[in-house]
Amino acid sequence: MRHKLASLLILGALAFALSACGGGKDSGPQASESPSASQTASQEVVIKASNWEFDKPEYIVPKDTPVKITLELDGGHGIKIDEAGINLGPGHESTVVTMKAGTYEFKCSIMCGRGHKDMVSKLIVQ
């Protein structure tokens, strides 16, 4: 009986933790996600996340132009930029956005281990 109760508590905690890692798409005032899959991006930016780092300290994209942002994952990582409407991670690795000029700092949005706090980069829109 104790084993069964402990298993149920662990499963409940796991379900809660996993639901906290997910989330819906946020829409911000400075970006718009493509309304349909038929919109073609003029450029693609690939952000690679692995071993507590992103592959570049900054990524540059054109302003007011549809851009496909793709997150290549090696492990459990994600990025979220609220003001740009970007929320990527396992199961949702790419999106098309049109952004206004600015610099958007982002961090890994999924607790990924001891180097999590060091996973910081910038998306520069010009």
From TrEMBL:
Residues 1-22 form the signal peptide. It comes from the Bacteria. InterPro entries: Cupredoxin. This is Cytochrome C oxidase subunit II. The keyword Signal applies. Keywords: Signal. The keyword Signal applies. It comes from Cohnella candidum.
